[in-house]
């Protein structure tokens, strides 16, 4: 059972975490390190953090089975994207794709869009490729690619869990309005990220 107070506390803590982070996680390539560096990487940029929390939040809104499926599809496809990045496969502008993921996922939550299961999976899978590709471009220079990959996949899963928890807290009608408001804020942040990526 959730109360407006617990929902408010969760929203404030989430906002504080986002405001305390740099805007982009991909300001350069060749991050050295292993598991800890990989774990910290998705937490080091608001674009990644918001997209991954949004996947969990949208999944919680859509309910079963997507509340379980989307947080599995995203890391799995992210690993595929990382492989493409490691081998330098061509992909449309990655930063624009990541920014667009924040914008679209935020809009899906804000508009309370109940996408068909196949379409929700396709949207999440596509955006996961961009996030994974960005990680993959950094992996070849990492001291421990396996540890780094394990770290960023685990952090991604935890961010999805945060989104699911927020979604479950927002199960009541008042909470749903709060969740949609969060989605609108996330979508607005995505617009800003996209403007920065294309400028």
From TrEMBL:
Pfam name, any one: HupE_UreJ
| Organism of origin | Dyella marensis
Key words, A-Z: Membrane, Transmembrane, Transmembrane helix
Q: Which residues form the signal peptide?
A: none
Q: What is this protein called?
A: Urease accessory protein
State the organism's lineage: Bacteria, Pseudomonadati, Pseudomonadota, Gammaproteobacteria, Lysobacterales
Looking at the keywords, is Endoplasmic reticulum present? no
- TM segments? 49-67, 72-91, 97-113, 118-136, 148-171, 178-195
